[in-house]
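Input/output pair, single chain:
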Amino acid sequence: MKTAVTRFATISAATVALGLIPLAGTSYAASCSGTGCDNQGPRATACETSSVTTQRTITNNSRKAELRWSGGCSAAWVRVTDDSGNSIYNSFGYIEKYDSAGKLIRSLSVEIPHNGSDWSNMLGGATYYYRVCVKFQGNEYPMTCSTKF
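Output:
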């Protein structure tokens, strides 16, 4: 009986230990890079794991837009948070991608219900410049944009 208990305990400990080791082929690396990340989600591609909020954060009447950058993916996106407490207007965040001459290449947007937070898909490439903008429904406040990063 003691041998059976000892075997069960050994097998149980080994099962727990093996469960903590990633299986062969398991990867936490990002699945895209640069322009290959265009219009892909930062979470679905694992780009968010290597991301930082840049200094390009702006606010517009309690709506905040943050330019997020993933060095591992060479891609950017906008994260928008609405803390306004206003249940009437949804918020909109934009990320814009510019070439070195200042020409707008592409932009993506995300709509946030009041008192929520979400992010856009990404735009990629380390040789581009990015900026984020935020606005909300209604014409009381114009769209506010960051400088380019």
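The beta strands are 51-60, 63-70, 75-82, 91-98, 104-112, 117-119, 123-124, 129-136, 144-145. Confidence is low (pLDDT under 50) at residues 1-27.
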